[in-house]
Give the backbone structure.
Amino acid sequence: MRDRPKVERQLKTIAQAIDDLKRKHNALSAAAQSSFALAFLCIVENRLGEMLLTAMRRDLSKRSKEDLFESHGPLGSLSARIDFCYALRLIDKETRSDLRIIKEIRNEFSHFPTLRHFNDREMDLIFRKFIQYKVGNDNMTLFGNKIVAVIKKLFDDDEQRKLVLKFLKDAKEWSEP
């Protein structure tokens, strides 16, 4: 009976260690999901830039191109690239809509000090904007489906498309809890 307080202290220490592990796992999971979303958007942003460059004059100087795409240039933001690609008929209306929502998801991951998960309440409000959203479904799965759809529309070359999809599949598996 004298060991009971000692056992209770040990159980309390174990419970605290488990809670600490849960918090760390949650933080790692959120960081992985954030990294997955940000990696995808980097690929998309670069691809939209490539598509715009292809649609531009061939004799445009390197400096002019750099000025257009630098961070404060007219095509420096993801929003501008999405809108210009749509204006030039390089992407369709559905892809533009999906990319705008995906951009909001990226912003939620990258511009807020707290780590987010795809299924957080704040994220769920953004995911509701997708036509395919269903209450109770996993938002990470919906995000993955949207990624595949967008990649298929942005990459003409089958080999490039397969390479990007493989990278994203590996990244998604790594980021799942």
About this structure: The mean pLDDT is 82.
